[in-house]
Amino acid sequence: MSEKILMVDDDRNLLAACERNFHRRFQIDTAEGAEAGLQKIASSGPYALVISDRQMPGMDGIAFLAAVKEKAPDTVRVMLTGNADLDGTIKVVNEGNIFRFLNKPCPVELLGKVMEDGVNQYRLVMAERELLNKTLNGSIKLLTDILSMLEPESFGRAEAVRKVITEVCSKFNVVDEWEVQLAFMLAPIGRVTVPPEVLQRARRGELLSKVESQLVAGVPETAARLLDNIPRLTGVAKIVRYQHKNFDGTGVPADGVKGEAIPFGARLLKVLDELAQMQNDGMVRSRALLEMGALPGRYDSRMLAVVKNFYEESVTQTIRSDLPIAIADLAPGMVLRTNIETTEGTLILCSGHHLTEMTLEKIKNFDRISGIKQPVFVEMPEGVSGSDGE
Fold this sequence. Notes:
Layout: E1 4-9, H1 12-22, E2 27-32, H2 34-44, E3 49-53, H3 61-71, E4 76-81, H4 86-96, E5 100-103, H5 108-150, H6 152-160, H7 162-171, H8 177-186, H9 196-203, H10 210-217, H11 219-228, H12 234-241, H13 264-280, H14 285-293, H15 301-317, E6 322-325, E7 335-336, E8 340-341, E9 347-349, H16 357-369, E10 376-379
Parallel strand pairs: 1-2, 1-3, 3-4, 4-5
Antiparallel strand pairs: 6-10, 7-10, 8-9
């Protein structure tokens, strides 16, 4: 059994007895008191199971197991006590999410059974997490690969702002940057429900019919509903749903949400998406940022200032490492620094795209059928090389 168990008690003799009785069946560490237990978790964790006495000097078992829950939420927790009052039991269960509650003295056979049950519970939790993570990561990869082919322009725009997203999230101490990054990648997914010719006309600023306008306006809500069906993407879906919401609360969705109650990622998505659109219409970035700053209530002004500062600094700090490369030598992990287009001018992938196995297959298929404009320039991240191994 590779999973470890930590016994915490202020009774040195009890700890020694546990080591004698169970060292052949389990990997057991011991700690004399709560403070020593927390140090052990920090230095020797993770532990599958922590068993703690309730009555200890200093930090008692209730506070200790609550701290364990915060520091190591996956660890299964068991309470041992010689004082089995009902109120105390309820408090322990409510504050520490205790797996088992045992009275002292506890028979060796019962304690051993609880140890086995605790370790098995830990294994179950970790197995479910691994399965969910693999399913989630696989689903996300499939979605982004498909989206990069169906909506190369929108997807390429999201790829191009990765660094500024990281910078803004860092400035605002955002913990779940991955949600923001993923929202930018998946925000256009609702567009797959709109006829391509309608999207093209909308991008060109042409007049749309009432029905067509409703289809385009409904893209964020459609995307959010699709993402709501994927486990753990509720936060991402909310960002996508509010991507067109103005900071003063106007815009869609038409509800009472405004200001900092709008998801952080949605506020950032609005700034970067509309900045990109203005640049796409031919306006230089510096001018676009000035005009955006003159629109009170539309953007989060602090966020807009951070974005503006990032781009001003990047003008002098950017060092390009673009390399020309043959189509046959493209490899997963490379970053496109030119658009991939057919010889007839059809856009396949946008500059900034991080190549994957699926997008490489698409490039090679188009190259065989109609040819790809060359040269292609890429950024070669450390550890990535062309198919020739050089």
